[in-house]
Amino acid sequence: MSGARTERILVIKLGALGDFVQALGPMQAIRAHHAGAHLVLLTQKAYADFARASNLFDEVWIDSERPKAWQVGRVMRLRRKLKTGNFDRVYDLQTSDRSSFYFHILGPGRRPEWCGVARGCSHPHDNPDRDRMHTVERQRDQLARAGIPDAPAPDLSWADGDVSRFGVQPPFALLVPGGAPHRPAKRWAPERYGALAARVLEAGITPVLLGARAEFGSLAVIACKAPGTVNLCDRTSFADIAALARQADLAVGNDTGPMHLIAAAGCPSVVLYSHDSDPRLCAQRGPGVVILRRESLEDLSVDEVWKALGPAVSG
């Protein structure tokens, strides 16, 4: 006699990196709540390997179609893919127009239970204050309304890259001067990062630069201004960044995805904000996070950032 059918659960989290990191706690809560279920994640290619390494999911699907409403062929291919999942419930942690559209293309007919913001879904997150809540509190509230009472802080103990190949010896500090190319107002000037790196070196701490290939020029400016800095531009995976964060004495960076990962891994962090993002809604979370915000980052001095680093660089 065959056993009962295994429950099938889909989690949707597409990106970006900071949002993905802050969704790891809710993902862990979903896994615990549906302990015996077959859990599938729908995400972007950039986060697929990271998600697989977490061991939270039985399958990771890549959202490769990304259809617009008028792209009928892509819409139908995605609909067939989602239908083949035969899901009992979907947790939409993206809660965007795009992910809500995925709910609607599953009709007409039977749709799975759906926890999200799509009109007509079974477990709507209809809190009128949701757009004024920090991402972490908003997702906790969303899951609570679907019967999952609490979502923990992310546990990144599994994200453990082999960083010995970088030859970085403690004490060291992580500097993250990059950010989204289309949002330059979120970036503190590389020249100021260079001046900060020089002070960090004088304190006997090695600055370690993290960034994507597109940030090569900015990181080269910083390394030039502070000889002795280690430049790991385009050399680190997400797991590497988490592993480095656990060993680092401190981190300084703009409001960008890697700083979410670094803070969540437990590294004392100073994060720089301009008018272009609101820390009340999206600030990095971790045991030692300091937020410095100015209307324009041009108004933030090296002295102010140095002072915010506190005991980590004193003496």
Notes on the structure:
The protein has two domains: 8-144, Rossmann fold, CATH 3.40.50; 164-312, Rossmann fold (3-Layer(aba) Sandwich), CATH 3.40.50.2000. It contains twelve helices and twelve strands. The chain has helices at residues 17-22, 24-33, 45-53, 72-84, 97-105, 135-144, 190-202, 216-225, 238-247, 257-264, 279-282, 302-309; strands at residues 8-12, 38-43, 59-62, 89-92, 113-116, 123-124, 172-176, 206-209, 230-231, 250-254, 269-273, 289-293. Strand 2 (38-43), helix 3 and strand 3 (59-62) form a beta-alpha-beta unit.
Number of strands: 12
Q: Which spans have pLDDT < 50 for at least 5 consecutive residues?
A: none
Q: From N to C, what is the helix and strand string?
A: EHHEHEHEHEEHEHEHEHEHEHEH
State which percent range the strand residues make up: 15-25%
Helix/strand-derived class?
Answer: alpha/beta
Main pleated sheet:
6 strands, parallel
Strand order of the largest sheet: 3-2-1-4-5-6
**For the CA atoms, what is the radius of gyration?**
21 Å
Residue share in helix: 25-40%
Distance between the termini: 71 Å
Overall spatial form? elongated
| CATH fold assignment of the largest domain | Rossmann fold
The CATH architecture of the largest domain can be given as 3-Layer(aba) Sandwich
Output the CATH class name of the largest domain: Alpha Beta
Q: CATH superfamily assignment of the largest domain?
A: Glycogen Phosphorylase B
Domain count: the total is 2
DSSP helical segment count: 12
Overall mean confidence score, pLDDT: 95
